[in-house]
Structure formats: structure tokens, C-alpha cells
Amino acid sequence: MTALLVTLFLPLLGALLLLFFKSENKGLIKNTALGISLLTFVVSVFLMLGFNSNNPGFQFIYEAVWISAFDAGFRIGLDGMSLLLVMLTTFITPIAILSSFDSIKKREKEYYVMVLILQFAMTGVFVSLDLFLFYIFWELILIPMYFIIGIWGGKDRLYATVKFFLFTVVGSLFMLIAVVWLGYYAGSEILNLSNGFTTNYLVIKELHDRIPVDLQEWMFLAFALSFLIKVPLFPLHTWLPDAHTEAPTPGSVILAGVLLKMGTYGLIRFNIEIFPVASMNYSGIISTLAVVGIIYGALVAMVQTDIKRLVAYSSVSHLGFVVLGIFAMTAEGFQGAIIQMVNHGLSTGMLFLCVGMLYERRHTRLISEYGGIAKVMPNFAVMFAIAMFASVGLPGLNGFIGEFLTLKGAFDSKILGSYWYTIFGATGVIFAAVYLLWMYQRVMFGTVDNPANKNLPDLTSKEWAMLVPIVIFIVWIGIYPNTFLKISDASTKQLVNKIEMIKFNKPAYELPEIKPADKNIKK
Amino acid sequence: MSMEIIYGMPLFLIAALSVIVLLVDAFTGKNKAVAYYFSIISLLAVAVSAAISLNTNIPKSGFDTTITGNNITFGGYAAFFDIIFSLAGVMTIFASKPYMKREFKEYKEYYSLVMFAVAGMIMVSHANSMLMLFIGIELMSFSFYVLAGFIRTRITAVESSLKYFLLGSFASGFLVYGIAMIYGATGSMILPDILNKITTGNFDITYLKVGFALMLVGLAFKAAAFPFHQWAPDVYHGAPTVSTGFMSTAGKAAALIAFVIVAKSVLPVNISVESVTSGSLELSKFTDSARMVIAVISAITMLIGNISALVQKNVKRMLAYSSVAHAGYLLMGIVANNQDGWAGIMFYATAYLFMQIGSFVIVGIIEQNNERMNFDDYTGLRKNHPWIAALMAIFMFSLAGIPPFAGFPGKYMLFVAAVESGYTWLTIIAVISSVISMYFYIGLVLTMYFKDNENGLIITDISSAKIPLAISFVFVFLLGILPGSLIDLAKSLF
Questions:
Q1: I need a labelling partner for B230 at 20 to 30 A (CA). Which of A112, A305, B276, B442 fits?
Q2: Structural domain for A342, as ranges
Q3: A319: in domain
Q4: Where residue B389 falls among pLDDT bands split at 50, 70, 90?
Q5: Would you call A135 and B431 a contact, using CB atoms and an 8 Å cutoff?
Q6: Is A219 inside a domain boundary?
Q7: Which of A136, A150, A177 sits opposite B428 (nearest CB)?
Q8: Closest approach of chain A CAs to the CA of B412, in angstroms?
Q9: A50-59 confidence digits (pLDDT tens)
Q10: Whether A44 contacts A90, CB under 8 Å
């Protein structure tokens, strides 16, 4: 519990600390920001060590009264899924900060403050067990991200950042209505609480069978709109290529690595948990859109001339797998979706880092400007290849595990009830190989035609330090995914049991009894 | 009797002190500092005297009211608003000093006008009878008419003052006519009596309907709600910037309190079963349709305010139009017309007051000779004045209702109140209009932060404007992250 509070608040304290530094002191600011994010990562490792993966419920729960009138509390806790995503956040942020050392060259102090606030908000999204608190963190993301894209972004950053902001806000405000409705309905109509209102997630998630289906569907749609914009699901994805392309490299890394996962996380955490019946009713439509997104994203990625835009569209395609896995509503599907969220964070994050490294050297992202880079930067070529193959889904690297599980989940799903989702979805894997390998070939192989590319330096030690940790996890998940799958196993099975109980009236899995000592609730 | 004096002290103090400030002004000649400090100290004294009665449990009956004759209420929400209004007055006076100096219009009457306006607002919040309510609103409005035209050499100021005066007195006519009708319907001016007569069926429904409709016109005008909002942008634009901040926040809050006071008595939501009489069915039909009318007004007000603000090039005008939209949000609480709704109004009005005064103070210190108020003038503000830009950004995010700033919990409360009373569609419209408002609020942040201006903007004179900025910032931030205690207080006061 203490470790969780520290993981959450350390970045915020770090941001406040940075405010007291003089902005001329650039070295100190950079190192402090990196130090704080590394320290946060170390603390979050203790979370992983202290986590009991046999317990399907929430752990490290901490509750404090915040606004008693709405029963909105400061309630945080972790289950397997949120633990993995918190770990992803604490892992990606130091790497993003390290990559900012070279790519961010103005207004450093403001920048690092923003990144640390962003980390605070992202962690908060994954640990909130209260809808009000979740909403606060969800919206808090907007402010730092708005500035990061708007100040340190590329040429069209103003357009991109306003678009990003407005898209997200439209979705989240509809979610706000649903939060208010749900809080009122749960508090007044179902539970008859004295203050007539509650946003306590642990209470609300048990009420799903007492919310009428039509109401569930409306609230499902409001939540889903917000999350699917963030994911982003086709056709709500149009903000993403702009935001990704215009954001500075570390911004893209965080955006792809963590921010998009908030959407898919929200789908599992809120849509499926609170509105299971509505989720089943809409699973066909959303899965279809996911499959369309997989293919559409891949096809559009294929024709991009800008490497960064290509990677951005590949995100649309890859996140389609995650959504497909979620709405298959089977254990494999959920597990695949969760591990694919982590995978995408690692491999796409790494791809963005590699693109950033090329950009630092040549200040262009056009594929046609490159060619034969493998000859001048052999080490870089290897690293880029690993990131690319992980993204393609080569067996032995992490992407394969996630894509395989989501597709298998969709194949077996009794709720989707059709093989066609898997059949069309699987073509996305092939397309991914086409656009990524083709891009790699054009950038890396061939002769060095462009004289500007003749004398590019290979990886620096700082760049090694960014890439090697990611490669370790890419290979680890690829070879022995069980370390990570095990963490979210119990909580996933519990969720599947809930769904199967509704649909087929019998649970699918036996879950171990939980000793009360494990619950560890402190008020 | 002594209790009555203590609890009524804010009202007596402000009434006496605002006159004394005028006298001080007359006797101090060219020395401007005396009136300035005297009015600040007076307002602080009012706030302190109100704080005494804030948390005391005041007996509703058996409380000797020989002096006030049941015309005023004591403590509770009235005391809370006393504090808020005096604080708004203090902030305005602090910010006005450098502003007026720059405009070469530092007349001491300004301070007493602010004091009179605060006195009017405090009378409104203490009103327990229609008469008191009307006098309070008029006192406030008259001070505003003068404040709007205070920079009398400026043509826009004169226009705004005249416009405000003519339309405002017309609206007051509606208000007083409505009061007369309601008196005709119920035979009483005292609000609890009116409520009592209505719930027991001792009234005439036709006169009540007409009376309420007329009062609605008057009050909607004072709150700048559709379709009586047309004056607001011009008046807010023409008035001295700092007093615009004061008028559009404290003035709006006072108008909304008046609304709450009237709606509480005239539109009882849950009429108890034992009071069922022949007229009660008709009465509940009337209250339902009246709430629906207010809901429609609220919806159109927020949409029209935000859509008009969308196309403004001038920051002051943008804030003026968006203040119309905020009146729309506040009216959601009247639609709900229950404890949650009133508490929501109280919280949101408070939060709005700080963020709006804060942003007007910044507009005021940037403005020069009625110029430098366009969006383009704000480019690169952060370069020379990072703190001012940061504060403005925070106020904009708060006005847009983005957490963790004060605007968000306020909106949340109003949304909850509207949903609870079955007006989900109104919440949806509020959300849509919030999305519209995001565009210009974050547009200003965009101008300040993302566009660079080689020369940058130089602000010459901030001096005492720092104080209201600091107060605004503290409240916008504190009410944003720790709204709980104020929400609980708000609910306990009604």
C-alpha cells in the first residue's frame, strides 16, 4: 500500500521539486527528472514483488474520504491488469525522459515538470478505484500532453494538439455524464444510500445485474465513446496520426507506450466489468470495427512516406487486436489483450525511439531520404530490426504472443460466435509484415545514395541505455510470457467467470479461495 | 435583541460603512489612500462579522426580530455569501487601484460604489421578503450602472452605462410588477409566508403564474440569461475591466441567489401529501412547467453564450460572452431546485467568482488605453511574464471545467443535481456546450504558450493586482483538489 502511494505520488513531488530549480540549471533538472523516474520504477518493482498473483481481487487497497457528499473517495488499488500497466508506465517514463535529453532543446524545466505530471496522471488512471478519481486523472492527462505536443512538437503542432485535445474532451465529457448517471443510479435507485450517490468502483462493479439493460447500453456507449477515441478505434482514430507525428519523440513514446492503453484498460475495467450485458450486445459491432481498423490501419501505413506516420498508423492496426481480444470476452482474449497492451507499449515505443534517433541525425523522417543506413549504422540496424520484428509479430519476440492469444480468443469466443473476425484479423499480421519490412528495406538496405547519410554516427551509449532494457523485455515476453501472463491470470479468470455466469449460468474456471489476510484493506 | 444585532451585523456594517466611505472620501480631499484602505478594511470587517454567524446554529423560530421585522434571514448561506461578496469587493478594489491609475481615472467614488454594490448583494443574500430582495437588487444594479460608465471619456463606456441603465430599469419594472402579482396571489411579502400559503393551497394560481413569469423576466435579465442576455457583452466590454470582473461574477452570483430565494418559496418541488387541496394538482403542473421553462432558458443560455464566444477576437468580449454561458450552467441548479441544486449554485458561483475575477484582473493589467485585448496581443505572454501566463492558463482550464481546478467539482455538482431531478438532457446540453467552450479557453492558452512573439508583451504595472491574483489562484486550486469541505458546508447551509 505504501509502495503504491509512493509510486503514484513520487512523480508529482518530483515535478514540484523541479519548480524550485533555476531554469538555467539544465543538467541538474534533467538528472533530477531521470533520477525520480528511475526511483519510481524501483519502488514499483516492490509492488510486483509484493503482489499475490493468485488473488483475483484488488490488492494494496487504500481508501480515504475525499468528497463525502458524493461518496467520491481517494480509493486506489491494483489487480493483475493494472499492475502490468503501472509497471509499463514506470518503465517507459525513464526511457522517455532519457530520450528527451537530446531531443528537447528549449524550455527544459517546463518540459520535465510536464512529463512528471503526466506520469503521475497516467499512474493515477491505472490505480483509481473510484469513478470520480478516475475521471480526474483521465482529464489531468490532457493538460501536460497538450503542452508537450503544442510546445515541443513538430511543424503542425498547433493543429495536432488542438485536435488531440478536442477529440479526447468530447469523449470524456460524455463519460462524465455516464459517471454522474451511474453514481446517481447506484446510490439512489439501487442502494438507497444516505447521500444518494456513490462512485465507489468496488461497490458499483457488483451491481451490474441490477442495472436495466437499456440503461446499461446507454452508459456503455458513453464510456465506450471516451475509451474508443483514446484507443483509437476506427473511425475515431483521426487525431492519432497527427498527434503522434507532431509530438516530440519522447511524447510519441509515451503516447504510444502508455496513453493509448488507457483506452483499452478502461474498456476492460469499466465497460466489461460494469456493463457486461451491454458489452455482449455490442461486442459484434465493436469487434467488426476493430477488424476494420486492423486492416485499414495496415493499408494506410503501407502507403506512408513519413516513417513516423507509418508507425502511427501501425498503432491503429495493433490496437485493433487489443480491442478484438477484449470483446471476444474469453480468458485468452483478455490475457492476449493485456499482454498485447504491454507489447505494443514496448515495441512501438522502441520504434518511435529509433525513428527519433534517425531524425536527430538527419532532421527528416521521409523514407525516400534514407537508404543503406545499415551500412553506416550497423548496431542501429540490429536494434531497429528487433523493434520491427517485435511489431510484426515474429515468433520468439513479444508481439507474437499477444496477437496469437487475441486471435485465438476471438476464434474460440462463444460471444462473437464467428470465425470471420479471426480470419480477417489475421490478415493484419501479414500486412504488418509487408509495411514494416518494406519500410525497413527502403531505409536500411540498398546503397547509400544520399551523401548526407554517408557519415552518420552509430548508437551512442545513451541510446544503448534506452534500447537495451526494452529489448530485454521484448525477448523475455517472447520466450517466457508466463512471468507476465501469470500476474493477470486470476483477475482475468474472475472476469470471465462473471461473464459466463451471465451468459451460460456457470463459471468457466475454478478460482482459489482467498485468505482474508491477503486482502489487506486499510481504511 | 442582542442576538439579532450580532447575526445581522454584516448587513448593518456594510450599510453603515459604505455611507461612511463616501463621507471619508468627501473629507480627505486629494488623499486617495485613506478611502482606499478604509474600504478594504471595512469589507474585511464585514467578512469577519459574517464568519462569526456562519457556523452557528440559528434558531429559525423564537428568535427575536423586533428590529428587522422578519425581513431578513441570518447566518447560513447568507453569511457565506456575505464573506464571498466582501472578498470579491476586496479583490476588485485591490486590482482597481493600478488599473484606474493607468487610465487616469482614480476617483475615490469608485471605492464607495464597489461598497454600495456589495451592500446590495449582501441585502439580496439576507433577504427574507420580496421587498428586501428588490431593494438589494436595485442597490446593486444602480452601483453597476455607474461602474459600467466609470471611464466617462470613453465612448464605449458611456454607451454601456446608458444601455445597461435603460434596459436594467425596464427589467426592474418587470421584477417589481411580478412581486406585486405574487403579493396579490398570496397576500404576503415574507417568503416563508408565501411558501406556507402555497403549500397549504391559500393562493390564487393565475396571479401566481403571471407574477412568477414577470419575476422570471426580471431575474433572467439580472443574471444575463437568454433571451435577456443581449446587454451583457456590450456592458461587460465597455465597463472598466476590473469592475467587469466584479459585475459578471459577484453580480451574477447575487442574481442567482435571488433566483434561489424566489424559487425556493414560489416553486416548491415536493409538496407534502397532507397539503393536498383542490389547487395542488394545478400547482404541481405549474411548478413542473416553470422548471421546464427555466431548463430551456438554461440550455439556450449556455449554448448561445459559448457559441458567441467562439468567434470573438477580443479576450474581454470572449470572457463576457462566456460569462453568459456560465449563467446557463448556474441555472441548472434552479432547475433541480433542491438542496443539491442550491448547494451546486453556491459552490459553482464561488468557484466561478475566483476564476473569472482572476482572469479579468489579468486582462486588466495587460490592457492599455482600451487596446491590447485581442488574442493576438497575448502571443508570447509566457516569455516575459511566465507567472501571469501560468495563472491565466490555470484560470482558463478552470473555466473550461478541466480538473483538478475549481470549475470541475462545481460543474459536477450541478450535473449531479440535474440528473437527480430527471433533467439528463440538460446535462447533455451542458456537456456539449462545455466542449464548445474548450475551443476558445484552450485557444487562449495556445496563443500564450505556443505562438512566439519576438518582442513579447511587456506589462508595466502589476503592484496591488498581485493580491487578487494570489487569492484567486489559491481558491481555484484548493477548491479544485479539496472541494469536499465546501461542498459539505454548502449542503448544510440550505
A1: B442
A2: 276-510
A3: yes
A4: confident
A5: no
A6: no
A7: A177
A8: 8
A9: 888 888 888 8
A10: yes
